[in-house]
Specification:
With 165 residues, this protein is α+β, with helices and mostly antiparallel strands. The protein is built from 5 helices and 4 strands; from the N terminus they run ββαααββαα. Helix 4 packs across helix 5. The chain is extended. The structure holds zinc ion.
Length: 165
């Protein structure tokens, strides 16, 4: 995947070129339909995410090391699968394989939060201070200021979060 579309810059493999494309004029259809589709440029993410992704501040560097934990803390659902872990047994080289058995679903849990660990979509119906406390209870190793900033940002910018209030 090292050949850039001359129209949009998307990276492709050679086998993805259009059949009527030539070696001197490589053209691709799966990205921009050979320049026929033009999307507006991506907007930078809102703050504080932009700073966390680009800054060399200590909290930003730490955020990038465990960004997946913050992502999990703010997710609406969890993945529900029966995973076949035997496929990776004795496998030492290459990336691990993710193979599932049966159906794949998203688990959101009940929206009631009484008497159980609060997580996923349940946290989005709590008032913000209680949601932040629950997220920190579930992720004691994460930075509370970062968590608070991201929660506020999502409340202001995420289209689904605004549906919860
Ligand atoms: Zn393209």
């Amino acid at each position: 995947m090292d050949i850039a579309c001359s129209s949009c810059g998307a990276l492709h493999w050679m086998v993805e070129k259009l059949s009527d494309s030539s070696k001197r004029n490589l053209r691709f259809g799966t990205c921009c339909m050979d320049g026929k589709v033009q999307l507006p440029p991506l907007q930078p993410p809102p703050e504080p995410l932009q700073r966390l992704l680009t800054s060399n501040d200590a909290d930003a560097v730490a955020f990038r090391e465990v960004g997946w934990k913050y992502n999990r803390a703010f997710s609406f659902t969890s993945l529900g699968v029966s995973e076949d872990r035997t496929v990776n047994e004795g496998f030492r080289w290459g990336p691990p394989v993710f193979r599932i058995c049966g159906d794949l679903c998203h688990r959101s849990g009940a929206l009631t939060t009484e008497g159980e660990i609060k997580c996923y979509a349940q946290l989005w119906v709590l008032e913000p201070r209680a949601a932040l406390e629950a997220r920190m209870d579930n992720n004691i190793d994460l930075d509370q200021d970062v968590m608070h900033g991201l929660q506020t940002m999502l409340g202001e910018h995420h289209q689904y979060v605004s549906l919860c209030f």
